[in-house]
Amino acid sequence: MSITAIKTDKAPAAVGPYSQGIIVNGMIFTAGQAGLVPGTGKLIEGGIREQTMQTLRNIQGVLEAGGASMNRVIKTTVFLQNMSDFPAMNEVYATFFGETLPARSTVEVAKLPLGALVEIEAIAFIG
Asked: Are 13 and 37 a contacting pair, CB within 8 Å?
């Protein structure tokens, strides 16, 4: 079994000792992504909608760098700083996936790194 780290400029650089994504046995496991603009390390301006959109674009960048796409995502976990943001996050989230939506868990957390309102991680298959 080989493990390959994904490193791409289409997503923010890691802000700690972790990889943007890992490929193992034809699967990609992304690190949690927030609404950071690649190359700047700063959160995108705006609220939950803008941060959710940038977060999913970042996941898309990691997946594409690993040979997958959003249509290959089978599971996501969404971390929200405030569960009242769920409806707005959900509206944006729904626009990123095809007919077969991935399984998902959504939880409210006390705080996210860098003051983010949302963080999302994904599992996808290559093919």
From this structure: no
3-state secondary structure of 16: coil
Whole-model pTM?
0.96
Asked whether 51 and 34 are in contact (CB, 8 A), the reply is yes
Q: Residue 112: is it exposed, middle or buried by C-beta count within 10 angstroms (0-12/13-18/19+)? A: middle
Q: Phi and psi dihedrals of 35, rounded to 5?
A: -80, 40
Domains belonging to the chain, first-starting first, are 3-125 (3.30.1330.40)
Tens digits of per-residue pLDDT, 75-90? 999 999 999 999 999 9
Q: Which residues pair with 105 in a beta bridge?
A: 77
The C-alpha atoms of residue 60 and residue 74 are separated, in whole angstroms, by 13
